[in-house]
Amino acid sequence: MVVSDSHSINAVGAYNGTLSITNPTPNLDRIASKSAIFTNAFCGNSSSGPSIATLLTGSHSHINGFIENKNNFNFPHESLPKALKDAGYETALIGRWDLGSKPLHFDYWKILADSTEKFNPQFLMENGEKRIEGHTTDIITDLVIQWLSKRGKNKPYFLMVQYNATSTPWMPAIRHLNLYDDKILPEPENLETNYSGKASPARYQEMSILEDLDFEEDLFFKSQVIDENKTKERPDSLGQKNLDAMTAEQFSAWTLSWRPKNEALLREIQSENSKLSLKFQRFAKNYLRCVHGIDENLKRIEEKITDLNSSEVIFIYTSNKGRMLGEHSWFGSKWIYEESIRIPLIISSNFTQSSNKIIPQLTQNIDIAPTILEYANLENLENSQGESLHCLLGNDDENKTWRDSIYYHHHKFPGEHMIAKHYGIRTKYFKLVHFYQFGEWEFYDLLKDPQENENIYNIQVFSSKVAEMKKLLNLKRSEYEDKTNISIMPEDWRKIYRGPAARKK
Predict the structure, then answer these.
(1) What is the CA radius of gyration of the chain?
(2) So what's the pLDDT on residue 273?
(3) Does the model's pTM come out above 0.85?
């Protein structure tokens, strides 16, 4: 199972994403062409750590207890690696790890000490730690291939690979720095937006491409020109930390690649509108370069598995969450909006098969652990709230009673990017969202407004549908046993984050 951090479906060719015109994932697309593609797969909490905890336990954050990043997760419940290890599987984890404490129930693990390190990263392992020279995506793959080559052949195995390249800072391998230099990426239709009609959280967030991405610290533009939209000093710049970690050869190659692009950028900055477009282009291209690096390495993993015996391997590619790539003028996640919660989910049971299967049903990452366990002929986890996808993967009619909605809850505020706490429900055609601490609602018609630009919660003609969705939301909240306090906060508290002293009005 390969899990990339915040891989938007808009950057996957197999999903016909808006940025797939750049062909960032040819190898993943080829794998998808002979696999099952879940076109409506979602996460239940679009934060890195909570989403991985959900994936490994098959339960929502409020059940597994890992509701926000920087918690420590000690697997208080049954988990996928524990169930497989107890059943005789050899278990391994390589790459990013977002759950704080050292991994449990993995026979072998090598994890990044700091998931923001992209060059020459430090790895932790059971017997110590080691810094390895190179780009993190290539190194993780090297370790995967080494483990596959050396593992014993007398046991089945479960290998979890987690890439960190598509998380901040977006720093691709040196060989990819000039990729897409000859292209102008298509801008999202709502790259420029004023959030008219949306609830207040859209206006008070801190993930604006124009206002929160800094030219120097996030986009590697070194110049004497001061970014007028720089909102705060960041002495702990993640980009600079990676530059400081580079070898002399890496730093020289990095600098030489950026110099002509920075000189050209300096000539192009003329207005606020041009700044938004220029920032979007630089951010999105770096992100796509990181995606392409992962895609190259997927081919290496595929070739190794094929050499060993691909007919006996279940291969899963997914992401812990999506990411805004300019939609709503944003660059982050954590929202219930489509770009943030939709994830790629591709499952192959045999790399040599010749056709794919498109699966449109509403699925979530709570379903992945039950699916793997059914493939292994094991029972579902005790606290799992997901269902095995096996019935959707087959050719029978068991899928006719599949779920008609997905449940979502973001639990952290205040926090990174200042996204208000909210929970909600998405059906095939509608979405209802409750920003409960501020007592605000949003409602969207996904068929007529797939980009979720127009909040129609207060439009009278939709009142009956809103009431119906609220009833369904309360039902699902009860079924999923979400007992989170959803009371509106006192007025004095709300004024702190929505009053004159707040960053925006």
Answers:
(1) 22
(2) 66
(3) yes
